[in-house]
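Archive entry. Fields below.
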Amino acid sequence: MSHIDPNTLALIALGESALPADLDHIRGCVMCQSEVDELTAIAASARSIDAEDRPIAPPAFVWENIESALNADSPTHAESATNSTNPTNSTNPIKPADATAAVTVRRKSRSMFALAASVGVLIGGLGTYFAVSTDDSSARATVVAQASLDPIRDVKDPASASVQQIDGREVLNVQASGLPATDGFYEVWLLAPDTTSMISVGMLDASEGGQFPLPAGIDLEAFPIVDISLEHFDGDSAHSADSILRGTLII
Amino acid sequence: MILMHTKSNDTYRSDSAASWASRSKSVKEEADRELTEAFALGHESAMRGVYERWSSLVYTIALRSTRNAEDAADVTQLVFIAAWKGRAGFDPNSGALPAWLLGICRRKIADFYAAKARVEIAASETVESVDAETVHQVATDSMETIVDRVVLADELARLGDPQQKIMELAFFNDLTHIQIASVLDLPLGTVKSHIRRSLDRLKTRLEANSVTH
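PREDICTED_STRUCTURE:
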């Protein structure tokens, strides 16, 4: 018997009914069988596509950032590089080796909460960035680090934190909601990576989040972990070891 | 703002790169091929075209993987900057540009997962411990599934009608080719051959994208 018509093999791969003789042939024919298998796998993969798989364009600022980066990188474009380079370059604790990070104005936060919240914030923040990049005398508010705060216990909504540089001063913003009611209070800390040394940056309003000016000269790379703890009115200023939310700042 | 041309007088076409990818001469594929050649030749103006053509693919894969619009924007930005800076490493004769871009995209997303795993390990003092190897493996597997699906969705959208409509009815409405022919008022033979050719095209596209550079 000759091989099965390729169009028919495709229909079989899609699950359409076939003549018993064709199916018999396929079972005994390595070539036809492997073709059906391949096409079946494609069809199965295609059938698993959902609405979120359909390609959507990135926000417009992504191209603008790429363009700035490439212009800054081009020796023939020294002038425009001066204008378009991220104004935080000179003040950010960005590692020189990570040159591409310099153009990444906004950094990571990873949470469904941030997904919903960040798009608006981001676009707003970017407007500020472009505004200040052309006016050196105005106040500069630039996000220099971000973290998503993952729930450690009792919190359903993930939260996020960011460090903004405003007029050369660093301010930690904590966005958190849905923290459980407590007869104690929530305290915000910056922890070293080994979590043994830490700096308290303030008390957090459980319903609104908060802004905490950071001590001048703080090295965020030495204290990159944002930690929210539940504290009790026990007069003990040390960390209660009862962390509610935690995340690492990505600078 | 237009990027500087370093070789603005160079011709867009290059016979040396003519063997790129598929033999098919559809208008869209021809446009992709020209874009690829211009990019490989280092035309800065081609960068915008490459971005317009493939940024949705990269961004959507990043968005599906990181589940965060901000991270996805970051990944997209890093991918295209890395692509431009590393364009000398792209050989148009050894594979398609989107496959090469997706190779970079995979690496940037892997970097993202690695950073995330470090965060989870840092937090594991107070929560259950996390096996970094497992996190990485799960991330890699699901990333490949995501890449396949987004690539297929992209190719499906580029089939053009009536092929796209035919395949959507077959995939998502589970219609037989006889029902599709009747719904779209097309000859049975036409529907059958469109199904076969479209499946082949999806397969070719998937295979091209599984090649990592």
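CURATOR_NOTE: Strands of chain A lie at 141-151, 159-166, 169-175, 185-191, 198-204, 210-213, 225-231, 243-248.
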